[in-house]
Structures are given as C-alpha cells and as structure tokens.
Design a protein that fits this description.
- The N and C termini lie far apart (about 35 Å).
- By secondary structure, this protein is an alpha+beta fold.
- It has a 5-stranded antiparallel beta sheet, covered by helices on one side.
C-alpha cells in the first residue's frame, strides 16, 4: 500500500522525492495512515483517525516548498473527523525519526488521558 500512496503523492504534487524513499517513509509510519490530501493542498497529507493525527510531508527541497521556511514534516493533533484542533504542532522539522517519536508519545498521552 505504501508504494501506491507514494506514487499517488509524487504524481499529484510533482514531489521531488524518489518513489522508493517516500514509500519506505510511509511504510515506517505503520498501519492506520490513509491519504487525506485534497486538491487545495500543496503537499501530501496523511491521516490516522485512530491516533487523531495528521502528517504533512513537503518537498525535500526547501526552494520548492510553498513557504521556504516550512519544514519537511509537520505532525498535528486532529479531531475524530480529521480537522485541526488549532494547537501547536506535535512536531515540525526535518527528521523523520522525531515524527515517529512525537506520534508515539502523543498516542501514549492520549491513552492515559482517556483512561
């Protein structure tokens, strides 16, 4: 599935990612992430409804990004329908391992708060 999502993102947004690199990145996210991009987005967006998180993956080259100071990854908390909660991002940066850490940390916090 990650290869198909990568191919769709590269084609839809003309991303400067290698398809294998993006597919491997998406694979590392694990299960539950689906494409949540729409035609108004400037880069692909992935949603995990169970975790109530949304991940934006931008162009690798900052010069190609809509805002040159945007980071490669932006992870945010969303409500059950995928809408932003207008809180600070869980993570904004260029390190994918930190995306995974922030996602896992938020999932633990959410689980503790819910119990």
């Amino acid at each position: 599935m990650s290869y198909e999502l990568a191919a769709k993102a590269i084609n839809q947004f003309d991303l400067d990612w290698d398809i294998e690199d993006l597919a491997n990145t998406l694979r590392k996210l694990g299960n539950g992430w689906v494409d949540h991009s729409n035609r108004n987005d400037v880069c692909p967006v992935y949603l995990n409804s169970k975790l109530q998180q949304k991940l934006w993956i931008d162009f690798k080259s900052p010069a190609k990004r809509d805002c040159s100071n945007s980071k490669l990854y932006a992870l945010e908390k969303v409500d059950a329908s995928g809408e932003s909660l207008m809180r600070p991002m869980l993570y904004e940066g260029d390190k994918f391992d930190t995306v995974l850490d922030a996602s896992a940390e938020d999932a633990v916090i959410t689980k503790v708060v819910a119990s």
